[in-house]
Predict the structure.
Amino acid sequence: MSIFANKSEKIFIYLFFAIGLFIPLFLEGNTFYINKFSTIIILAIFVMSLDYLVGRTGLITLGHAMFYGLGGYIFTILAPEYEAVNFWVYTFYVMLISGFIALIVGLIVLRTSGIYMIMITLALAQMTFYFFADSIEYGGQDGLFIYIKPETSIFGLSFLDLDNETHFYYLCLLSLFNCFVFFKIIMNSSFGRVIDALKENPDRATALGYNIFHFRLIAYVLASSLAAYAGYLFALQFGFVNPSMMSWDVSATALVMALLGGLGSIYGAIIGSFVYEGLHYFIEHLTEYWMFFMGALIIVLVLTLKYGMAGFLNNLSGGKRS
Amino acid sequence: MSQTILEAENLCKFWGGLKALNELNIEFKDKQLHSIVGPNGAGKSTLLNTLCGAYPATSGVILYHGKPITHLKGYEFCRTGIGRSFQKTNIFHNATCLENCCIAAQQRIGGSFNLFRKRSTNRKIAEIARSALEQVGLGARADTKATEVSYGEQRQLEIAMVLATAPKVLLLDEPMAGMGHEESQTIISLLKELKKQYCIVLVEHDMDAVFELSDLMTVMVDGQHLITDTVDNIRNNPLVQDAYLGNDDEVF
Ligand SMILES: Nc1ncnc2c1ncn2[C@@H]1O[C@H](COP(=O)(O)OP(=O)(O)O)[C@@H](O)[C@H]1O
Ligand SMILES: [Mg+2]
């Protein structure tokens, strides 16, 4: 048994990462595109974490960008301004602290469900947004700058230079890969069995003796700290954080990407992010009314592809829906 | 006489002004099949739902082996040994029959918080699940998706899932509802076997099945306990015939 749910997923993942590995060789020197790809890959990590929450656990949130933004802020606030800290150590800090915040937030929001959960996650994210936007200490609307990027040595060995676009790109690609594998492992695990059950029928899962609150809380913490990790990468790429990272439309756009890719398919998050950003990029260059055309196109795609792009690929490869 | 496992004392469940359970006193003994009958809306499902912790009681006490368990959370009832099947089929449709029972078995065996262990590698869980399926006669359907099996088989699966939780008490809400004659016979012979091991509380409209299976019967009307007695005594009781069995037409 492999970790893949179906053939199309397997083909897509192999192709995507094979192309991903070699593409910088063809883009030699074209840092614009390399940076663009890094950004979309970071976005895909964020969307994947949201897809797990919404599509696998059944928890619908409109506040996921809060953790994306927090990931950036946690690093920027924590790291000394003019000193290169260690990337891996700070990855640990960012995920630990954001996980802890998610635990507290989860204890509140997971008491609700459905539309109430959407509302309360949105409200909390907006509160956090305004907290940073109004805070003088954290730079208000302008946010904070990162003057020195972390170094990446492990036991004194350093392979990656984060100031180098190609190196940074590979870090992002590796992160996306790890994130994908992580989600596939927990989906196939004993824990994943309970998550599947409580998503489909929470009352029956309770009747079978599961305290579903605990399982939802763990899923929420995991997904939130991965969103924070994505936000941390985003902040490193652009060298700053600002409150717009956690604005509600970041959450909403990510939700659209997850839907577009195929809700709950996990690898669909990668497709959704690339298709959305690709369309965005091309349509933006064609017309100044890109938002309108983009919106119309997304609506058509989401309506015609019932299970998103992942479902579409699966049909193409003749697989059964899983 | 066998031992009392589950008891309700002055159990009440109100829905606003509606007294779905009104000062109910009842006890269930080990290795007996105790049926609850009564017209539609009598409160039978509500009684099962309250006994299994799905609905908190408005007042009164539920005792398990003499200890009050009324205060427990919904999910803790199953863990104490009270298993419940539902009137409306309540299974995991997207999963296979085996997986449905694995979900049930895993709660007891543990490891549910293990993020990394592959679910399919737990032999013990799979064994319990498979034997529960075989017990209800669904062994051949193990790898079929729950949506794809017949309605009657879904009802059997419902029971298999309860068995996989290794309960002491089985609360079964109309397990034969909507089943054909042959499928009902399967369930009847299954219940005959099961009552040798478990304390079974059966809510069922099929009176032939009830008379055939029951050690004790309780008649409920309007949330109240009318009478509890043996099958023969209930059949001949004029009070019951008046209130409930009197006219030979529809009993529900
Ligand atoms: N969730 C509920 N909310 C409000 N009223 C309910 C609910 N469940 C059951 N009732 C009411 O309680 C009474 C008993 O219902 P029920 O226990 O389903 O009866 P039975 O199973 O004996 O047919 C009915 O009048 C029903 O309308
Ligand atoms: Mg009923």
Chain A has a mean pLDDT of 93. The beta strands of chain A are 144-145, 240-241.
